[in-house]
């Protein structure tokens, strides 16, 4: 059923859990796995400062994430690749980029971790996972943060 799976990661423990899930699913189904990291600097963090150091730091983080993800793919003998996208202009829509990558790669499924934010934190920080699911033209599996009760139901 799922032959091409896209998983969005950001270096967080929740994204790592989503990657683990996607990797297991891809391995079990002999599917290809496309790992995606979006370089994003929220506009609030750059204000009047030069954004280049922030962008460069995220590029370095992205390359580190790419190396770890490729190692995991190779270790698990799962066919796949890792893509890093830069979100320009700054403050753009990460969820849109995830869905665009899924469309371009012709993914059958998107896997993404949620950060479990509630209330004001969710309103002020937004939810990439929620926006991704709302905009998606394909199935999306939302993986809750590790250690939550809901996590046991997902696996």
UniProtKB/TrEMBL annotation:
Name where it's found: Cytoplasm
- Outline the extent of the UspA domain: 1-144
Principal subcellular localization: cytoplasm
By its UniProt entry, which SUPFAM superfamilies does this protein fall under? Answer: Adenine nucleotide alpha hydrolases-like
Tell me the Pfam families matching this sequence: Usp
Sorted alphabetically, the Gene Ontology cellular component annotations on this record are: cytoplasm
Alphabetized UniProt keyword annotations: Cytoplasm
Q: Which PANTHER family match?
A: STRESS RESPONSE PROTEIN NHAX, UNIVERSAL STRESS PROTEIN HP_0031
Query: Can you tell me which family this protein belongs to?
Result: Belongs to the universal stress protein A family.
Q: What's the protein name?
A: Universal stress protein
